[in-house]
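User: Fold both of these, please.

Assistant: Here is the first one.
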Amino acid sequence: MNAATVSLRQPAQARQAEMVQAVLNLAAQQEPASITTTDIAKAVGLSQGAVFRHFPNKQAIWLNVAQWLEATLMPLVQTAAQSSPDPLTSLGNIFRAHLQFVQENPGVPRFIFHELQQPAASPVKQQVAAMLQTYSGILIRVLQQAKTAGQVSPSLDERSAATLFIGSIQGLVMQAMLLGSSTSIQPMMAGVWALYLSAIRQEVAP
């Protein structure tokens, strides 16, 4: 690849990144389904025709958003998962890192919920589902480490515990959406985390 090609490609990549952020910013303020390419063009200061020079259609923009989400969130989760020799400390760090990410990117939950609710298995929905599967796998590994260390119930079902972990975050996010502010997550975090720890440490009655 010569220098001229790189020079031409970098502005296009920068524009695509701007449009991804525009979608997420718009999603924080309105339903993702109502976002149009005209809205995106206006947000980044381009004509609608210029938007389609960077992406062939709206679906391609949405797929790029999903790819950005995976490329940004998953490294945060992976880093938090390896942040401590103590598995439950690492699990808590994942919990806090994810919620911090949501607070910084309030359009992300709306985007995810919107895509997962779609009846068709579109490339965007498949991308989001694959990311959640990867996320669940990371959680399961940390929970297995916690079980080996004797920190959680020996009868714990790690897959169910991973589902509960993600569900706890989704519950906090939904509460924040109802209250209209992602900052409302902060006061609720400690209580929800304490309940989660209690659930995975306790022996399940037969």
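And the second sequence with its predicted structure:
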Amino acid sequence: MIRINMLGHLEVIGNGRDLAPSAPRVKSVLALLALNANRVVSTDTLSEELWADRPPRSAATTLQTYVYHLRRTFGGVTGGGVFGCDIVTRSPGYMLRVTDGRVDAEMFLEVAADGRRLWREDRVDEAADRLRQALALWRGPALADVRTGSPLTIHAARLNEVRLRTLQLRIQADARLGRHHELIPELRSLVAEHRLNEWLHAQLIEALRSAGRRAEALQAYQDLRRVLQSELGLEPTPEVQRLQTEVLGGMRTSGAPRLLRAS
């Protein structure tokens, strides 16, 4: 059996070893096929990924060579690819044929969607656990060591955006469950990484306030205000300003600004 991991450095795990190709363009072909597992990727899309709008005259032959090398990789692990992964020729291009659970990006999207469903059903504890499982699949930025052309850049951006949305929803679920003390260290790290994300700053302010650390909550607001003014020349949103006013007045509310949607 074989597993393809793309939520971090690209890995092809088979027989306990990482068999990922080292050649940059072969790696790009594999990543694009894996992100479209069980769907045909046209030779035009693969060519765009590899050479943008300037493919060489030998593009078709070169692409066939890359696919050949990948087929050898999968065949060496699975005895022809029948029981794990294989690449099949399907007009107008190629398809990576895999069984469920072989590609971590695909698994992430499925588990994250399940977490969102549980949230919509108000099964908050289960949603938090499921969302945490989805996030645990990540080992770093998507396709961290893959040279990306336009198609892969779009895929990676989508995955990274879904990751952030999933993280936000998991934080929201943990806050609903009263896990404010546990959230504070994580939120401090996140606001340092995402300095302009007001939603994360608001969650930190609310977590500190809910944990009884009012002075630190007010300082967290001032930190956000200083960052926005220095980098964008902006003030915090009215929602975050109201949160700061409520902290000053010692008022209790239903919490920091929530996600617009949980979809």
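The longest helix spans residues 150-176.
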